[in-house]
Amino acid sequence: MLGIRFQTIPGKANQSLTRTTCPTTKLQLTRLLRIPFPPFKRPSFSLSKLNYHKIFSVKYYQSTMANPSNEISTKPNITHVIFDMDGLLLDTEKFYTEVQEVILAGYGKTFDWSLKAKMMGMKAIEAAKVFVEETGISDSLTAEQFLVKREDMLLNLFPTSELMPGVSRLINHLEEHGVPIAVATGSHKRHFELKTQKHGEIFSKMHHIVTGDDPEVKQGKPAPDVFLAAARRFEESPVDLTKILVFEDAPSGVAAAKNAGMYVVMVPDPRLDDSYQAAADQVLSSLLDFNPSDWGLPSFKDATN
Q1: Predicted TM-score of the model (pTM)
Q2: How far is CA 109 from the centre of its chain?
Q3: Which residues 6+ apart lie within 8 Å of 139 measured at CB?
Q4: Do residues 195 and 92 make contact, with C-beta atoms less than 8 angstroms apart?
Q5: What's the rounded Cα separation, in Å, for the pair 291 and 85?
Q6: Within 10 A of 169 (CB to CB), how many other CB atoms are there?
Q7: Any idea which residues carry the catalytic annotation?
Q8: Which tens digit of pLDDT belongs to each residue from 255-293?
């Protein structure tokens, strides 16, 4: 039994997406339906013309077919690694949460994690539109006005950003063993510089960094632009996309990596609903729990297995 499930997208009566646990069937169905089905290479049509926020929504990836756990069924030989930044390398998501709670309180509303999940990983303007529309304050506050108000509050917080647990150990380990690593973040360059100013040594180990305002990033996550741009900039380019491992904390980031045809390890905030983890190839509570050998990468020196 191949375990194939068809799911119709709301508003797309004649279009279905297919999930299967059989890799060969995945590839055959991808060619038949002409949709990008990770972790295989994308079909030949132009992805830039797709509206990922409608077609490849986070909801698409909430499938019980996936196996979000510490165990993975295969051990692919990963050659390159790409990291998200906010909430994954740096403990900055809390700043956005605090500030957005304050802004909404002024309108007599509360900020919850269902809204947070929709905004995480997106470009700033895209997340802002979701924020004002979902909270029903768009008549009083435009997305642009929200960003200005939020910016004034965030600028003093960003320079205090701290590394998440396990970041230094993993990045130093990968660099020591010559594994090419990069950052692909939705943050603009100006914010990136503020957030990382205390952590120059760690970020200097990256082969390159792609920010959300990079000219090659036409669409934010869950579109694959930022990860594809990061893949193209490795020295060995073109890199086999199925040999790239992405680390993410956000549902839209996981979707973006899968749309790019890459493997994904998700390290979600514990407050994020478990249903958002279904698309990830592996889910961990912390980077401290990551075992490189699961992915064909050199083991940590202190590994006991």
Answers
A1: 0.76
A2: 28
A3: none
A4: yes
A5: 20
A6: 14
A7: 84, 86
A8: 999 999 999 999 999 999 999 999 999 999 999 999 999
